[in-house]
Amino acid sequence: MSETAARKPVHLAVYDTYADWETGHTTAHLTQRGHAVRTVGFAAGAPVTTMGGIRIQPDLGLADLRPEDSSLLILTGASLWDTGDELAPFAAKAREFLAAGVPVAAICGATAGLAREGLLDDRTHTSGVSFYLAEQPGYGGAENYVEADAVTDGDLITAGPTEPVAFAREVFARLDVYKPDVLDAWYGLFHDSDASAYPVLMAASAAGDA
Asked: A single GO molecular function, which one (predicted)?
């Protein structure tokens, strides 16, 4: 069996008002590097509409998602994280993943959902701004908040809404998608528009490493 065939899928949570732009770099480059990306909604086949007006039909229902069948769960930002507890089942699923030692990556409003679930209390993390999390009921992790583009603490990755590239970088590092020097070049090109990173990526691509 090839390495690609042996990999477990990456699961991307999708729900109404999902912020399209926050995971574009992550999913596109994971796919290019041979990782299967599967969408997870409340119900398989029940379409959701993103914040950008794009309709997505989930591959899998949340109740059928098992940590042992996945390599990573990505929780995206969405307006619904800030208007009630409708998305709380996705935060509860993140708890299952972390308990099973399977990574979770949360960006933007999804960090608020994790805060309400108590998953940030004992882990270093970030978000858009510290007071956004401080407003979340039950959040007890203020002392572990870090002012950073994106943060990885063991199996948990967090990022704010303005850092989709840094978010992707942390995911790629956690899943060993690129060698460290290639990852640095990838980030330099896509985050900093560093032209010197381009030949590094081209050389890595020619060698099958990017």
From this structure: peptidase activity
